[in-house]
Backbone:
């Protein structure tokens, strides 16, 4: 296996649908501007609620992308 170096960035996606959808939105947006995106880690999940009703999800990700040679 070759050696790789990764750089990290942190992004937050939001969605009224689900936490999974918020992750997909964050990854899609990050991949539009960053090449070699290879992994992510969920750092935080939060939401906006009124009573027992969830109105909005926010998910913060640590995203790793491979630095090109």
Residues:
């Amino acid at each position: 296996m070759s050696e790789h170096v990764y750089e990290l960035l942190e992004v937050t996606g939001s969605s009224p649908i689900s936490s999974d959808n918020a992750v997909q939105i964050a990854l899609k947006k990050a991949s539009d501007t960053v090449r070699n995106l290879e992994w992510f880690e969920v750092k935080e999940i939060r939401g906006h609620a009124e009573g027992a009703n969830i109105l909005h999800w926010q998910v913060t990700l640590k995203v790793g992308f491979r630095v090109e040679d």
